[in-house]
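dumping this here before i forget
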Amino acid sequence: MPDSNGATIDYVLKMVRERNIHFIRMWFTDVLGRMKSFAITPSELEVAFEEGMGFDGSAIEGYARSVESDMIAIPDAQTFQVLPWRPHDDGVARMFCNIYTPDGSPFDGDPRFVLRRMLKKASNMGYVFNIGPELEYFYFKSSESPEPIDRGSYFDLTPLDNASDLRRDTILTLEHMGVPVEYSHHEVAPSQQEIDLRYSDALSMADAIMTARLVVKAIAIQHGCYASFMPKPVKDINGSGMHIHMSLFKDDHNVFFNPDDPLGFGLSDTAKRFIAGLLKYAPEYSLLINQYVNSYKRLVPGFEAPVYVSWANRNRSAMIRVPLYKPGKEYSARFELRSPDSACNPYLVFAAVLGAGLKGIEDNLELPDPVNEDLFTLSLSQIRAEGLQLLPSDLGEATQLFEHSKLMRDILGDEMHQFIVENKRDEWNEYCAQVTSWELDRDFPIL
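structure:
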């Protein structure tokens, strides 16, 4: 097991004593990105840092069979934060954990380890991978049905936006937990919100996204409502995405930046090869960035979500967009992947898109021409004339493409790759066996 950062551990031990912390929650995720946790008391904290805490991995989705279930969780001291919504006396703190097997080896089924392994590859190439996400979600009156709490729309600042207090309390809580927020606003659909986190390295950002999703839900409960990150909870309105802004830094310089870019986008050749990798492998990693049956209800024409493998400058109908808010500024040079939804597992998504981008750099892939037309308005025959490839249209197609992807298997490892294939095939088969209310309403009275 790796050596710990002693200075950081000493700080955690001191904070637990001084702030009267009585429970320390050990956070980690299953393969699908669902938060898991168990609590320890301060008397166990030093042992947790030195040896880890054992738990039954067979109870965690995608972790291990019962015959090989023993797992060790070692907290990452640098992720220590007090939970502000818990009582101040006998308080509660959390740390994200790395998962190991009893022999001290990193556990291949730990999504955090998968990302750490890919970030190590980038580091060996001299790169730091930075991420800035836009988290979209809905507030509803309860978890029983998707009934909106307001009728607001994009950027509304009126009495119609009943969620402004929820966003304020959520942002204050996040910042108390060391998660900086850059923007927040009402989104297009009634009750739909967006919170944009300030960019950071990919591992810190994956932890921040998991924290943000929990905080959003916790604050919603305090206000007597329900927050949902379901990609498409309501028909006929926009779904919730998680647009990802990304950049690569090397020696404190943004390697995606080139002020003399002949295309006028401010992008370097490295950036263009990275984008080319994202485009080439997009159908293969679609299962990770859109991992549920419901995810593909969002990815349909007419609802501001990308449907085609494409890139462009400022064109919001493209899968990858190059924003030019601050042209000529090195630190702002980036591009935005618009297809992920906010229910994904950020550890696996960041590993997959980084792996695809690095593959584009390694293979010196050529970037196709940008698509400047509004893809939402083009007919299928026009799309075919453009030669554009469709993203997977449903979970079944995405699972099949993912299953045969050597790159995804290399990034995730054989066992995790196989588990995801089997899990998603089961979900798709179960969905296909359902008889929906749409079918009954449409066909039952006449057939």
